């Protein structure tokens, strides 16, 4: 008998699936071994098919969309990797996984339940008897691994310690030497995904952008492109002028991480640093909806809103953070919000003065006081940037010695460093913006503000600059 028609409404469909009982097996089905009818099916060591069964379930005759609901319910009742494997095996033995498309649908549900590296390790260990399934799980995990350094060679077994190779490259002086070394190690291991990802990096460092893009696209085609490779490919496509394709590539960061706030944040940061403010705003909006009142997410959303020209919304979001909860000190998000708002208003105040709009300048000066960033007469030097993956530091010196400051705020997560330089005269100071860590493969632009408040009025100076690609610092002696 054919299955009755199913309503489109998921709730009613779910209730019916929960109450229906599978049809009894016929005599011809009993004690009969049925192999998966898929030419790409996994096989045992003796060549026989893995899934053998005596009875096909009622679910095996239902559409894939309905089976996903049933599989999700079965997985909801599991407690670990061994149960994941049991659900997969039982579904195969009930004729529910007759095609690779059906297997992938169930494996997608399984993979989404591995949240930590330990979960991943146990899951892959459990699925070793199903090589094709384990390989598919590895590919999906690789594409959502946001920390490639921590996972290097962990999920895809490799005969090379690529982490040690990566560290060894730092000792080589030229990009050509680093490229030659990676190619030497890759000989005979051309399919190693970690080695290929490292090859993309050194190709970019050697300015072989076309070859780097070609290799990154091959990794993407093979479903082996990690988030780091996708970020590189996104940059390469954007630099080539293909903005639409670059944004699509960037968006794959959340394709397998739709519910992961870290992936959403990383994608928003990618968009923001390229100046794609509307795209960044959408990602941060989703992030804020999930993280609720997370202050750093709100400040990110404010930055993208300001880039779109929604300065009022940006200031409103920053006021919300400034009036929220926090502990006094250098990591207080309320203080971050006050200073970021002050910089935002200071930008507009400089523009108003440049246009000789005295009335607007007076109104903006009042708003600058309302930010409460300057509660007393003081001079503050503030560094801001929009490439949040870059960790910049501000160094101020007087007479060749580091300047002692009354207050220092460092918030690279929102592109901010601020120093209260007290009574020091800005003209006496030499300023330097330093890149923490290794040089980046791109330039990082920044703005350096010096705001002096005498208790009544503000004096504002601004210098724009950049830490150039491959460099670690930008010196601006005598410019602030």
Structural class: alpha+beta
What is the makeup of the main sheet? 5 strands, antiparallel
Shape: globular
Mean pLDDT: 81
Strand content: 5-15%
User: What is the helix fraction of residues, given as a range?
Assistant: 40-55%
So how many helices?
19
Count all strands and give the number. 9
Order of helix and strand elements from N to C terminus: HHHHHHHHHHHHHHHHHHHEEEEEEEEE
Return Rg in Å: 28 Å
Task: Please give the alpha-carbon distance between the first and last residues.
Answer: 84 Å
Give the strand order, joined by hyphens, for the main sheet: 4-5-1-7-8
Report low-confidence residues grouped into runs of 5 or more: 1-11, 13-48
Describe the SSE topology:
Blueprint: H1 10-19, H2 64-76, H3 81-93, H4 100-111, H5 117-126, H6 131-144, H7 148-151, H8 162-169, H9 175-186, H10 193-205, H11 209-221, H12 227-239, H13 243-251, H14 261-273, H15 277-291, H16 295-307, H17 311-322, H18 333-354, H19 358-370, E1 378-384, E2 392-398, E3 401-402, E4 407-411, E5 416-420, E6 430-435, E7 444-453, E8 458-467, E9 473-475
Antiparallel strand pairs: 1-5, 1-7, 2-3, 2-6, 4-5, 6-9, 7-8
Can you describe what's shown?
- This protein is an alpha+beta fold and 480 residues long.
- It contains 19 helices and 9 strands.
- The protein has helices at residues 10-19, 64-76, 81-93, 100-111, 117-126, 131-144, 148-151, 162-169, 175-186, 193-205, 209-221, 227-239, 243-251, 261-273, 277-291, 295-307, 311-322, 333-354, 358-370; strands spanning 378-384, 392-398, 401-402, 407-411, 416-420, 430-435, 444-453, 458-467, 473-475.
- The longest helix has 22 residues, at 333-354.
- Residues 1-11 and 13-48 have low confidence and may be disordered.
């Amino acid at each position: 008998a054919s299955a009755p028609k199913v309503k489109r409404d998921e709730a009613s469909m779910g209730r019916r699936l929960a109450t229906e009982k599978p049809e009894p097996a016929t005599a011809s089905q009993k004690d009969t071994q049925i192999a998966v009818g898929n030419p790409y099916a996994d096989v045992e060591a003796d060549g026989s098919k893995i899934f053998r069964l005596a009875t096909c379930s009622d679910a095996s005759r239902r559409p894939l969309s309905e089976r996903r609901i049933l599989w999700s319910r079965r997985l909801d009742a599991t407690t670990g990797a061994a149960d994941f494997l049991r659900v997969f095996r039982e579904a195969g033995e009930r004729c529910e996984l007759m095609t690779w498309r059906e297997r992938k649908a169930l494996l997608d549900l399984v993979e989404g339940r591995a949240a930590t590296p330990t979960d991943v390790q146990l899951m892959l260990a459990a699925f070793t008897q199903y090589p094709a399934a384990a390989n598919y799980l590895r590919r999906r995990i690789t594409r959502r691994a946001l920390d490639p350094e921590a996972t290097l060679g962990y999920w895809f077994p490799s005969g090379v310690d690529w982490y040690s190779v990566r560290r060894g490259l730092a000792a080589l002086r030229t990009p050509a030497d680093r490229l030659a070394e990676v190619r030497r190690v890759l000989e005979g291991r051309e399919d190693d995904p970690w080695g290929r990802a490292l090859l993309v990096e050194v190709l970019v460092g050697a300015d072989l952008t076309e070859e780097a893009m070609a290799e990154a696209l091959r990794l993407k085609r093979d479903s082996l492109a990690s988030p780091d490779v996708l970020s590189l490919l996104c940059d390469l496509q954007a630099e080539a002028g293909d903005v639409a394709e670059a944004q699509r590539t960037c968006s794959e960061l959340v394709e397998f991480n739709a519910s992961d706030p870290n992936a959403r944040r990383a994608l928003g940061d990618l968009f923001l640093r390229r100046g794609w403010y509307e795209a960044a705003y959408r990602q941060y909006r989703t992030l804020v909806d999930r993280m609720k009142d997370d202050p750093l997410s709100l400040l990110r959303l404010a930055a993208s809103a300001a880039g779109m020209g929604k300065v009022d919304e940006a200031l409103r979001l920053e006021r919300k953070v400034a009036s929220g909860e926090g502990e006094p000190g250098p990591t207080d998000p309320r203080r971050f919000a006050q200073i970021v708002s002050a910089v935002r208003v200071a930008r507009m105040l400089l523009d108003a003065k440049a246009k000789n709009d005295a009335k607007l300048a007076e109104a903006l000066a009042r708003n600058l006081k309302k930010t409460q960033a300057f509660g007393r007469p003081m001079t503050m030097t503030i560094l801001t940037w929009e490439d949040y993956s870059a960790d910049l530091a501000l160094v101020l010196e007087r007479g060749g010695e580091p300047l002692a400051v009354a207050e220092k705020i460092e918030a690279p997560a929102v592109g901010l460093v601020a120093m209260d330089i007290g009574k020091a005269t800005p003209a006496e100071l030499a300023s330097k913006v330093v890149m923490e860590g290794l040089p980046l493969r791109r330039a990082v632009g920044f703005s350096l503000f010096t705001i002096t408040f005498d208790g009544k009025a503000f004096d504002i100076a601004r210098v724009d600059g950049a830490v150039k690609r491959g460099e670690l610092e930008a010196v601006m002696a005598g410019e602030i």
